[in-house]
Specification:
The complex is a heterodimer of chains A (568) and B (253). Chain A is α/β, with parallel strands linked by helices and 568 residues long. Chain A contains 21 helices and 19 strands. In chain A, α3 packs across α4 and α14 crosses α15. By secondary structure, chain B is mostly helical. Chain B is 77% helix and 0% strand. The chains are: A alpha/beta (568), B mainly alpha (253).
């Protein structure tokens, strides 16, 4: 389907501005290959567009072209034309476009320009030289709209939680009162409950501004898609390969989306699977919440044979998403008793943690931002010494390895091959070649590890840990962060292989679908304490616990409940 | 108009008045070689903190101990190595007061180190960094690019220590034992430096992009939610402070 096909009927709404991109080809400085190729896109006032594509396909680069930061501040060669509100972007410096387009980026900590809540909201308005009385009024309005108390105006922003910081940045963007908004992975750093709150908030505030258009760069689709008018799909080469309303794209062009390695809504994946198995349903849902009703209706209307087949297929689809346990878990590898931790001179981060990890099991460590998951993970891996309690290892000295959230932290060598060799030792050139082939990095063996893509860095860092002399316990800290669908699937295979080798694995994650797919048991943490350790299904069925730990059930939970309610 | 900022009595003074008076006291303390003057400067800096800013004396002493440590070093050096024969040529006026020139010089240097610390503490403890930078941008033409870059650095620095701690842990796990020998240790620091630098540059990039996307531009084009004002309290503070300094100078030197 050509990208220009299925173009929108033109909307004329007050307070809006149009964005036109024509034949944009972007090549970053010192790169030979273009990041974006011949990209054309039009966004009319009031439209809500999702830019979807695999990681590294140039979505954020496209965003930075929209106000001229690329190429005016970040050098690059750029062909084609971009116009905001009918004026070419290149005629003004990037800062001058802040009245027309407002951005909210992903990492809240590196976007805070000032020290207090009110200064943060005032920043863009002061830059526009608005009178103080107007700035004051806009701060009041923006804080009210995002639900931050007025009493927090002079609070230091660095002491806010991740979710509150993101709300503050949203308030700052709203105060700009721009006709175009761009949200670039705004929830990437948030826990599940804060993520849901952020999407609800964005939906609410954008509903109040029907004339403003919004571009989203995101991969958490289920909550976002109800807001979206059109999805523009980029492939790994930076080409726009499809543009259509979400239902049409994810149901009628599912193969095109899958070929790019991008995320898809789970409901569309399930219905695609059912279609391929010969069950054709008229409905085309995008949210999992719609699915049980549609399935029940279809099962009710169909004959007994089809009804049973539907149940079996849904069961198969759910089972295929789970990483099958390697059989009963083995002996206890590590037992933590009454573990506590407080850095010198600092507050207590962990207290009274009792936990057992067995060989051959994957234990998920879940909880809100700041619950103490990474600290506990570092202690279990033997990298931090607990300040209270003790760890009992099963007769082994070096208990575990820890895969850091930022893979760059643990790179030692200046080439990819050197990185693997550092783990293998010099005596095993054959295993080095095998590892390069298995990782698909043979062509990149002489590159610096920092030059790899996010997914490649993650694979390399995990492989480097695995090739080192075997350690029985592996702690993975947010291993799927920043990965696209293809990268996450590859990671899940790698983790499943590790479990087969009899290791015990601790998985720290905010992604409840990943936890549901991989983990046998979940340990739920809140404010440095362990609230409950149990089988994943039991945890996800406990609503009070999920609310207390700011978690959400996985998207598949509602489908599992539907399946469980079916007669055997 | 915005509600007034929640500041203590000293905190609500304009940072530039405090900077000017602290500068005058620092200059005087550096130039005057007299222990009683240094003692008076210490009291002049600390008493207002206790009386008007709610500071606890023990907390102030705790913050000043590094300066006292440096001062003790000077005191010990003077007591141990002072050249008494040469001293009469430059301390002749003050010798009758202290009797022992070594003790006199050592005590003066000891108290001067603490006085410099106490005056700086007065400024830092009563001044909000954002207020200070705002005043510098509005009154002293500090370019906002620099002002906001400093504020971003202020946000960023606490995280840098955490980052370094994580890097050390990550690399210690790969390398096993801590490296021995200076050459290996140096290589270890280089290994830490590259990812730390790469990470810091990326964060700085993101902060710069966020500021530019929100329209940071030339100082003359900006307005400010809170202007940097001088009030009668600033006048009173400066007048009292300068009068005290002049009186100390006349009485004690």
């Amino acid at each position: 389907m050509p990208p220009s096909a299925k173009r929108h009927e033109r909307r004329e709404l007050p307070g809006g501005a149009r964005l036109d991109i024509e034949g944009l080809t972007l090549t970053h400085a010192f790169r030979s290959r273009p990041t974006l190729r011949e990209l054309s896109l039009r966004v009319d006032p009031g439209e809500r567009i999702l830019l979807l594509g695999p990681s590294g396909c140039g979505k954020t680069s496209l965003a930075l072209c929209l106000n001229g930061i690329i190429p005016q501040s970040i050098p690059a060669s750029l062909e084609g034309a971009i116009a905001l509100a009918g004026r070419p972007v290149g005629i003004e410096p990037p800062g001058a476009w802040a009245e027309t387009i407002a951005f909210v980026f992903q990492d809240p900590d590196s976007q805070l320009c000032t020290l207090t809540v009110e200064d943060e909201v005032a920043f863009a308005l002061e830059n526009r030289a608005l009178p103080p009385a107007e700035i004051d009024g806009r701060i009041d309005g923006a804080l009210d709209r995002v639900g931050l108390p007025q009493a927090w105006r002079q609070r230091a922003s660095r002491f806010l939680s991740g979710g509150e910081k993101q709300k503050l940045l949203l308030a700052a963007a709203l105060a700009q009162d721009a006709p175009i908004y761009l949200f670039d992975e705004t929830t990437a750093h948030l826990d599940p409950a804060s993520t849901l709150e952020a999407y609800e908030l964005i939906q609410r505030v954008m509903a109040d501004r029907p004339g403003s258009s919004a571009l989203f760069i995101d991969h958490r689709l289920d909550r976002l898609l109800p807001m979206i008018d059109r999805v523009e799909l980029l492939d790994g080469e930076g080409r726009l390969v499809a543009g259509a309303p979400p239902t049409e794209l994810f149901h009628d062009h599912r193969a095109a989306v899958a070929a790019t390695g991008s995320w898809q809504p789970l409901a569309a994946e399930l219905f695609g699977f059912l279609r391929e198995a010969g069950i054709k349903l008229a409905e085309r849902p995008l949210a999992m919440a719609e699915v049980p009703g549609i399935l029940s209706h279809a099962a009710h209307a169909a004959g007994a044979a089809l009804r049973d087949r539907l149940t079996v297929l849904v069961g198969q689809w759910l089972a295929a998403r789970r990483c099958a346990p390697a059989g009963p878990s083995g002996p206890v590898l590590l037992r933590a008793e009454e573990i506590g931790y407080a850095p010198r001179g600092g507050p207590s981060l962990l207290a009274g943690v009792d936990l057992e990890i067995r060989s051959g099991e994957i234990l998920g460590l879940v909880g809100a931002n700041g619950a103490g998951k990474s600290t506990l993970g570092l202690i279990l891996a033997g990298l931090l010494r607990p300040s209270a309690g003790c760890l009992h290892h099963a007769g082994i000295e070096a208990a575990g390895s820890f895969l850091f959230q930022n893979p760059e932290h643990q790179f030692l060598a200046v080439t990819v091959a050197g990185e693997l060799a550092a783990s293998l030792g010099d005596a095993e050139p054959q295993r080095l070649e095998e590892a390069l082939d298995r990782l698909g990095l043979r062509d990149k063996r002489d590159l610096h590890p920092f030059q790899l893509s996010q997914g490649e860095k993650r694979r390399l860092s995990l492989a480097a840990l695995m090739l080192a002399p075997a350690r029985p316990l592996l702690v993975l800290d947010e291993p799927s962060f920043g990965l696209d669908a293809a990268g996450t699937a590859s990671l899940m295979r790698q983790v499943a292989e590790l479990r087969q080798s009899g290791r015990g694995i601790v998985l720290i994650t905010h992604d409840m679908d990943l936890a549901a797919a991989l983990c046998d048991r979940l340990a739920v943490m809140s404010a440095g304490r362990l609230l409950r350790v149990d089988r994943s299904e039991a945890i996800f069925a406990d609503d009070a616990l999920l609310a207390a730990a700011r978690l959400r059930p996985p998207e598949t939970q509602i489908l599992q409940a539907w399946l469980d309610a079916r007669p055997a | 108009m915005p509600a007034p900022l929640e500041r203590s009595r000293l905190g609500s003074l304009n940072p530039l008045s405090k900077l000017a008076l602290a500068g005058a006291f620092l200059a005087a303390s550096s130039l005057v070689f007299e222990p009683r003057f240094q003692l008076a400067a210490i009291l002049a800096a600390l008493l207002p903190l206790i009386l008007f800013d709610g500071a606890r004396p023990l907390e102030l002493l705790w913050r000043l101990w590094p300066f006292a440590l440096v001062g003790l070093g000077y005191l010990w050096l003077n007591l141990a190595f002072f050249d008494r024969a040469a001293a009469y040529t430059w301390t002749s006026a003050a010798v009758p007061v202290a009797q022992d020139p070594a003790l006199f010089a050592g005590t003066t240097l000891f108290l001067r180190a603490i006085a410099l610390g106490a005056i700086s503490l007065f400024f830092v403890r009563t001044t909000d960094p954002a207020d200070f930078l705002r005043s510098l941008m509005l009154r002293c033409r500090l370019p906002p690019r620099w002002g906001f870059a400093l504020l971003a650095a202020f946000q960023f620095l606490p995280g840098l220590a955490d980052q370094l701690r994580l890097l050390r842990l990550a690399q210690a796990q790969r390398l096993g034992a801590q490296p021995r020998g200076w050459a290996k240790r140096l290589a270890g620091y280089r290994r830490l430096a590259i990812p730390l630098l790469a990470d810091s540059i990326r964060r700085a990039d993101r902060a710069a992009i966020a500021m530019e996307a929100r329209g940071l531009r030339h100082p003359l084009d900006r307005s400010s939610l809170r202007p940097s004002l001088f009030s009668w309290a600033d006048g009173l503070f400066l007048a009292t402070g300068l009068a005290l300094l002049a009186a100390l100078d006349l009485l004690l030197v």
